[in-house]
Batch of 2 targets.
Target 1
Amino acid sequence: MSIRIMVALENTIFTAGDILKGEVIIASSNIITEILEIIINLKVLENVVLEGKRESYVFYNTNYKIYDRKQLIQTSIDKGLTIPFQIILPYDAPGTYNGHYAKCLWTLRVKVILKGNKEIIKEIPFIVLPHPQYIES
């Protein structure tokens, strides 16, 4: 069985505090019998290099369950599944940046958990601008 995951975001650039809207699209034949749940993970990670040492700091890391087995059983589909989602981005998280000594990355990770302890993961980076209230002058 072949399962393909696609993630479509409404925009490519967001501002902290915006609503991240998108869809998880799962293309497969006989999808219902294998999927147990679908989880979205939103993560903001800063990587810093100081005196030759690389360190990572997690600013935000939260899971959102967008579908589980009970919902899938009630859904009538043959070839695939499209699940819309909306997540409010944290207001006080830093914006995306990529400097000489540090970078801050936002990623959206979709994990489809299947029967038999199998997982399919799709991860996409996206750009977030800092909320105007938190921009230093």
Note: The chain has a mean pLDDT of 86.
Target 2
Amino acid sequence: MQENKIRTGIQAEIYVAEELAKRGCWVGNFNKGRTGTQPFDQIMTGKKKVWAYDVKHSKIDRFDFRRVEENQESALGFLYQQGVVNTGFVIVYKDTLYYLSYGTYLTLKKNGDKSVKITELITFLDLLMYKGEIAYAW
């Protein structure tokens, strides 16, 4: 079993940014404002498009939708409806980045699902390589 080096949400955000930067992506972090909220954690651009996502850290192989905050739904939902930015959640589980698109999240919620098994999601780096955003996933 792979050891999980990431222990906090802040560590997960740093880890995601570093992994993407190694592959030539630009990553910007949103800091929490005076109210303690932010629209989502990071915005990233690779070779083609902009990606806006919230980073979630998980110690178990399930992502509970109750972990999605109202401000994240509002901001990601707005961008999703505009259709110009890829939106979703990057979930760090056992030091691997998984991706849940905002559209899939909405569909699962509409179907009554309350969570998703993380290891059934596509890995974020594989998705970015497939989409031509990065040259390699390893």
Note: The chain has four helices and eight strands.
